[in-house]
Design a protein that fits this description.
This protein is mainly α. The protein has helices at 41-57, 59-68, 78-91, 126-144, 153-159, 166-175, 185-195; strands at residues 16-19, 27-30, 35-36, 96-97, 109-111, 114-116.
């Protein structure tokens, strides 16, 4: 139960005392004995204002920046935040697309006025998976002596996809990252399951 505020009167300028305490107990004690924790209200208000302005007038950059630095937030898991912000971006007519294996970028970036996922931003891949992807692509291109974009679907599956742990390979298929080889994820998954059983000699 709260008491209704009847009136607010100015008492002039007075000293405010900062009681330094470790988080989360960072409070302020003013000279009439009231302890308050709203010292950051003004700066939060400024941040909110600028965030709203950027979201309204520069939504592409706003969402790309938020998604790129989402790992620094602590109020929920990064993946939950990524899912929520990606959906919110679509409501603002900002397209968010999966990465493409032809240009394996690490983090969220902007391309052709769209936000594109980085491979480390996809669940089950992360930094170690991204390093493995880059190394495997380089090895396959050296082996076949041609750029990855010129691989046939079967060459890509056998020389690249089957070299990954199953979880990474399946994630790449179902995330849409291999759409340049075939937009049908079910077909890619089926062919991957078959070709992963073959040896290099059998191929």
């Amino acid at each position: 139960q709260f008491t209704e505020i009847v009136k607010i009167e100015s008492v002039g300028v007075q000293d405010v005392y900062d009681v330094e305490m470790e988080a989360p107990n960072h409070n302020f004690l003013i000279d009439n004995g009231i302890v308050t924790c709203n010292s950051h209200a003004m700066t939060y208000g400024i941040d909110t204002y600028f965030s709203a302005y950027l979201k309204t007038h520069f939504p592409l950059v706003f969402y790309a920046s938020w998604l790129r630095h989402i790992e620094n937030r602590q109020d929920s898991t990064p993946q939950e935040q990524i899912d929520a912000f990606a959906e919110d971006a679509k409501l603002m007519d900002v397209a968010v697309e999966p990465p493409t294996i032809l240009v394996p970028t690490r983090r969220f970036n902007i391309k052709n006025k769209k936000i594109v996922f980085g491979f480390t931003d996809i669940r089950n891949i992360g930094d170690s998976g991204y390093t493995k992807i880059k190394a495997t692509l380089l090895e396959a291109q050296t082996k076949l002596a041609k750029p990855i974009k010129n691989f046939s679907r079967q060459e890509f599956i056998h020389c690249v996809l089957t070299k990954f742990p199953a979880k990474i390979a399946e994630t790449l298929i179902h995330s849409g990252s291999l759409r340049d080889f075939d937009s049908c994820r079910a077909k890619l998954a089926s062919e991957y399951a078959i070709l992963s059983e073959f040896t290099d000699t059998e191929m």
